[in-house]
Amino acid sequence: MSDIRPHEIMVPTSDPDDARLRFIGRIHTPWTDRKDCPRQGKQDGPECRIEVFEPWVPALKGIEDYDQIEVLYWLDRSRRDLVVQNPGHTDKTFGTFALRSPVRPNPIGTVGAKLISVEGPNLIVRGLDCMNGTPLIDLKPDRCAFSPKAAPKD
């Protein structure tokens, strides 16, 4: 992973050994290459599937009451050593923490997704922006939707 763009700055790092995350599932999208992933997802994007592994499936109880969910995932194919980056869409450089780039010291991604349906251990969603096979870290109701959607009126 030594390829860096002009003006980017890399720092030496050791192999990570201090994160003790539990991957609770896997994300299935149509994208197999980072360059094909949409930037920050699109609510009208393709349907994707979030597969939740046992023993975490019961934790989905009630999630169908939400229209929007936050999906947190581990960007397992991202480099972790850049502190200054030169995004491909500009000539300017930015500090890593000033970007939503997948290149981060701890490559955690987050995106708001539209929940289409719940099918057993699978969530069908729109709005993802990660590659097929990305490990799932967590799911949460949308930050602005702390309560479930209203029940239909008779």
Brief overview, please?
With 154 residues, the protein is mainly β. 0% of the residues lie in helices and 32% in strands.
Task: Describe the 3D structure.
It is globular and about 45 Å long. 0% of the residues lie in helices and 32% in strands. The protein has a single domain (23-141), classed as Beta Barrel (Elongation Factor Tu (Ef-tu), domain 3). The strands form 2 sheets. A 6-stranded antiparallel β-barrel has the order 2-3-8-7-4-9. With 154 residues, the protein is mainly β.
CATH architecture classification? Beta Barrel
**Main β sheet profile:** 6 strands, antiparallel, barrel
* Separation, N- and C-terminal Cα atoms: 59 Å
What's the tally of helices?
0
Please specify the SSE layout and strand pairing.
Layout: E1 9-10, E2 25-28, E3 48-52, E4 68-74, E5 82-85, E6 94-95, E7 108-119, E8 122-126, E9 134-141
Antiparallel strand pairs: 1-5, 2-3, 2-9, 3-8, 4-7, 4-9, 5-6, 7-8
Task: Please give a handful of descriptors for the protein shown.
single chain, 154 residues, mainly beta, Elongation Factor Tu (Ef-tu), domain 3, six-stranded antiparallel barrel, three-stranded antiparallel beta sheet, 9 strands, 0% helix
